[in-house]
Amino acid sequence: MTLPTPTLPDLTAPRAQVLLAIADDALISGHRSSHWTGVAPSLEEDLAFSTIAQDGINHADLWFQVLLGNAGDSSGHDARARVDALGLGRDPADYRHAVLCEREPRDFAFTLARHWAYEHLDALRLDALTGSSDPDIAAVAERLRHESRYHLEHADHWFARLSATDGTSADDDAHRRFGEALAVVLPEALGLFEPVDGEDDAVTSGLFPRGHVALREPWLAVIGPRLREVGYDALVPSAQDRVPDAAAGGRRGRHSPDFTEDVWPEMTTLYRAHPGARW
Fold this sequence. Notes:
Elements: H1 14-33, H2 43-68, H3 79-88, H4 99-102, H5 108-129, H6 135-163, H7 169-189, H8 199-204, H9 212-229, H10 257-273
Helix pairs in contact: 1-2, 2-3, 2-6, 5-6, 5-7, 5-9
């Protein structure tokens, strides 16, 4: 017997919008990380990005559970079916991740540049959420903050490795190529700090103690000095820089073909092909 579509709560409420932004960032970043499985430049990085992918998808799952609660619904669906419907059953315009998260992996330099920019935002956001007035949000943030530090250590390791130069041609080439990747990533990374609808209310209530907009300044305070230390002064975003048009609007459902024509169809095809299936 095929059950009707699971019922979901009001996803337009500020709490839901904030949790969708956090969960969708993790889900889509994790999906993109999985594209390195089997093709990363080394076995170590194949395993690292496979683990990062699994963690991202699992973190998204936990945030979806917080959004939904643990109860089933009147149509007979259990909590697992509702989480699947939330993660895989929405239309593309209903996802709230930043556009940067959906970009195709391109090359390894681009992936590592995005990884570095995103993990520093995620660390700051989780720190903020541990002080949430919502005890469920605070508890999950505290748990994930400890898990995510390994992702940040991995990202910082590669930043240091690729940005270092001692005058050898190999190091100079890595420094140049990584700088070129950062030049593409960092402007689009400003989209990570766009607010979702109703975020002001979530901040005022203490649910999201420091909203996305407020997290931009501490993010710049962390990455700016690191960039300058290794000669990437020209790449440091300023407080006045705007999100490029092509990367704007992700928090409100405006996504690029990288998502609507690539990630979303690939990620949801099995779910859509077998409605009502249990996973």
